[in-house]
Write a structure and sequence with these properties.
The protein has 286 residues and is α+β, with helices and mostly antiparallel strands. It folds into 2 domains: 2-144, Alpha-Beta Plaits; 166-283, Jelly Rolls, CATH 2.60.120.10. Helices cover 20% and strands 32% of the residues. The chain has helices at 17-29, 61-71, 104-112, 114-126, 138-144, 280-283, and strands at residues 2-3, 46-54, 77-81, 95-101, 127-135, 166-167, 173-174, 177-183, 191-198, 203-204, 207-208, 213-226, 232-235, 239-242, 248-252, 258-265, 273-274. Strands 6, 8, 9, 12, 13, 14, 15 and 16 form an 8-stranded antiparallel beta sheet that branches. It has a 5-stranded antiparallel beta sheet with strand order 1-5-2-4-3. The chain has a two-stranded antiparallel sheet with strand order 7-10.
């Protein structure tokens, strides 16, 4: 099966690249749409294929810097990343990118996600491209899981400070919020982790999680509230369990910053539903 989620583009206008790049990175690191599942015979892997020619080398840079963070939460991994192409038959292609996902559904969910939608116009304006999603077979699933068929997995160490951080998108947060990725979800563990720091007075919007979320407060003092219940104070060392479907918000206290580790699962391609922002009246009602 082959799906074509896009079309050829060659546009010359440059967008506000830095803003789009930051939005896409934050969206990828925060609880946003994602699906993960162990590849199986019933769900063959999905492969994203892009044939492209760069028309604006400077314009494509923010896209190249941010795109990894958008597909990693969906279990995607590079199989080919713009390597040299040798044409054996037919017209040569300038460059090819192939990203393998645990399933076709996950590949499509990534392409449709707000995180990727935020940076997709950069690619469309900076390249001539043809984009496809192809249903693969089991050996390709091993690539998505980071394995060669028949080769045992090895430990991966992500060094402190090597993961990019971004500001929390204004659509989903009030005040100054910093988001740092800790680990992405993968085919084996269906949950991602991120450190989120709220400056005094900052908070998330109301939201729910279809698979639930755990918050481990690592520093400072914060607030959290379930819909229809009083605001509660949370402090360093506290662990909060947010059950699936429970409408809530969390953030810093008015005078103290707060950092928590958020561990969020996914179901049916989503791990959060964002709602209205928390008003000052709601935030101060204690």
């Amino acid at each position: 099966m082959i799906l074509n989620p896009s079309h050829s583009t060659n546009m010359k206008k440059k967008p506000a690249l830095a803003a789009l790049s930051a939005l896409a990175l934050a969206a990828a690191l925060l609880p946003l749409p994602a699906v993960y599942a162990q590849p199986s015979a019933a769900r063959p892997p999905g492969i994203y294929i892009s044939e492209f020619e760069v028309t604006d080398p400077e314009g494509i840079r923010p896209y190249s810097a941010a795109v990894d963070a958008t597909f990693a939460p969906f279990g995607g991994r590079y199989a080919v990343r713009g390597g040299q192409v040798t044409s054996l038959e037919g017209e040569p292609t300038k460059r090819i990118v192939m990203i393998v996902f645990p399933s076709l559904q996950q590949a499509q969910a990534w392409y449709d996600s707000p995180a990727y939608a935020a940076i997709r116009p950069i690619r469309q304006r900076s390249t001539k491209s043809k984009v496809f999603i192809v249903e693969g077979f089991q050996a390709a699933g091993a690539v998505a899981a980071g394995l060669q068929p028949g080769v045992q997995a090895a430990q991966e160490i992500t060094r402190a400070g090597t993961q990019p951080a971004a500001a929390g998108p204004a659509d989903y947060f009030t005040g100054q919020v910093r988001v740092e990725p800790v680990w992405p979800a993968n085919a084996e563990i269906n949950a991602s982790g991120g450190l989120v720091t709220f400056e005094p007075g900052a908070r998330s919007a109301w939201h729910t999680h279809p698979k639930g979320q755990r918050l481990v407060v690592t520093a400072g003092e914060g607030l959290t509230q379930e819909w229809g219940k009083p605001v509660q104070t949370i402090r360093a060392g506290d662990v909060v369990w947010c059950p699936p479907g429970l409408k809530h918000w969390h953030g810093a206290s008015p005078r103290t910053s707060m950092t928590h580790l958020a561990v969020t699962g996914t179901v049916d391609g989503r791990n959060v539903t964002w709602m209205e922002k928390v008003s000052d009246e709601q935030y101060n009602a204690r």
